[in-house]
Every structure is written in C-alpha cells, then in structure tokens.
Design brief:
By secondary structure, this protein is an all-alpha fold. Helices cover 78% and strands 0% of the residues. It folds into three domains: 47 residues, no CATH class; 64 residues, Orthogonal Bundle (Arc Repressor Mutant, subunit A); 158 residues, Tetracycline Repressor, domain 2 (Orthogonal Bundle). The longest helix has 43 residues.
C-alpha cells in the first residue's frame, strides 16, 4: 500500500495521513517488540528509563519510591554518627580525653565497635569532629551577635556574654573546649585540634580589628583574642571547683565589667604606643 501511494505523482492530504498512520503503527510495533525483548540499548530514547523532562506518572512514582529507601538510609547513618558523637562527648566530660576508650564510647552509645570504625578512624577523629562542631557553633554565635557592634567596650562585653550564654547549659561542651585548649600545648597532642581554635582566635581578632581606628600588629591582636578566650575558660575552670555559690554564671557576669574595662584600657594603651612609634618613623 505504501509503495503504491509513493509511486503516484500527486498525493492528496488523505494520502499523506494514510502514510503517516502506517509509519506510526509500524514504529510502535517495533518499539513494543524491543521492549518485550528487554533490549535496553536498542530501544527508542522515549522507552529508555523514562522520558527526560516530564515523564509519565507511573515512571515518576517509581523513581520516588526508589529514592525513599536511600533517604531513610542516609538519615539512619547520620543518626548513628550523632549517637556516637554524643556518647563520646559525655565520656570525655566524665573521664577526659586520655582515659576514655573506644569501648567506653560504644558501650555508652550501645553500638558495636564495627559501627564505630565505619564512621571514625580512631579516637582522635572523634575528638577533632566534636571540637570542630562545637567551635563552629560558638563562632557562629559570636559573628551573628557582634556583626553590628561599632565600639570596643560593647564588643568585648558582648563577646564575654556570648561565651557565658553558650556554655551555660552545655557543661560537656565547656569541658571539651577546656581540654582542647589544654591539649594544644602538649607534646603529644590530639590531631585536628589546632585548626578550629586558630580559626576561633582569628574570628575574635577580626572583630576587634573592625571596631578600632588603627591597624594593630597581628601578634598584639592575637593577645587580645587569647585574653577573651582565657578569661572565660580560666574563670569557669576554677569557679566550679572553688566556689560554694551554685550560680557560677552570675558571679562571672559580675566580674565581666571589670574584665572588659581592663582589657579596653589595655587595648587603648597599646594603640597609643603603636601610634607614637609610627609618628617617630
């Protein structure tokens, strides 16, 4: 039939429609046969793993069904990792970095050692991630609450207050913070501790630098960062073992004014000395 129509010199619209219908039916027959044979490589593109763009509802539903198990698996893996981290944080607060073993962590988490090693290489790996997470949250709080501060006394007061607010109900995190600071100076320190603390100090230094009208030398800015960090960690570490007052935070707030006043005066004096040196050059 197709050959007879093609041989005609002139074809009507009806003839074209007949040819079109014949070709569509023939192509569809080939596609169905290929699909039944399961020959993926030679199938028309529209039959290979669904359409690109908007596909049929059945194909889209099937794709979503395949995604759900993967999403559940990711959530389970994430939850297990978090369970190990929380268990490790609790054990480090109770026994310290050195005395805590991997067995202690897995027992507290009620998980096997194989699960631990699926998520972490060793105890150093856990410590590094806990420190990084905790310091990241602290720096985020500092940056968020100090971004609009324009004068030095307010900035210093806010930074001390942020540390107090941050650690007030997070004793385990403070112990982690304090042990991390102490561990930096040990000859055999835990790997991965230095970077989060250096980033933290740089964050404090940049904020101090942003509110003063004179560029201070980097070593001097580093001293100010250490002073803020040292005031909070030093006071907390001694107050919890020496004071009979249960409200340690309240006592720290009362001392904040004296600390901020002293540090502000120290920075202003350093600025005056540095300006005088530049004037003599």
């Amino acid at each position: 039939m197709l050959d007879d129509l093609v041989k005609e010199e002139y074809m009507t619209i009806t003839d074209y429609l007949v040819i079109y219908g014949y070709m569509v039916s023939y192509g569809l027959k080939i596609a169905i046969n290929l699909n039944c044979k399961g020959n993926e490589r030679h199938r028309p593109r529209s039959l290979q793993r669904g359409f690109s763009g908007v596909g049929s509802p059945m194909i889209e539903k099937s794709a979503k069904a395949k995604e759900k198990p993967k999403q559940r698996q990711k959530r389970r893996v994430k939850a297990t990792r978090l369970k190990l981290l929380n268990a490790a944080r609790d054990m480090f607060a109770e026994k310290g970095f050195d005395s805590t073993t991997i067995d202690d962590i897995t027992e507290r988490a009620d998980l096997g050692k194989g699960t631990f090693y699926y998520h972490f290489t060793d105890k150093d790996d856990v410590i590094a991630e806990l420190i990084k997470r905790m310091m990241g949250e602290l720096m985020e709080s500092i940056d968020r609450r100090c971004e609009d501060t324009v004068d030095l006394p307010t900035l210093l007061d806010d930074m001390v207050k942020i540390h107090i607010d941050f650690f007030r109900n997070r004793w385990e995190d403070f112990v982690l913070y304090f042990q991390g600071l102490a561990g930096l100076k040990l000859q055999e320190s835990y790997s991965g501790l230095e970077e989060p603390f250096l980033t933290y100090l740089e964050s404090i230094e940049n904020l101090v630098d942003s509110v003063i009208n004179h560029r201070l030398p980097a070593p001097l800015l580093r001293r100010f960062g250490c002073a803020v960090a040292g005031f909070v960690s030093g006071y907390y570490s001694f107050a919890v073992i020496s004071t009979e007052d249960e409200d340690v935070d309240k006592a720290l707030v009362e001392m904040r004014g004296a600390f901020v006043s002293s540090l502000t005066r120290f920075i202003n004096e350093a600025l005056s000395v540095d300006r005088a040196r530049e004037a003599l050059k």
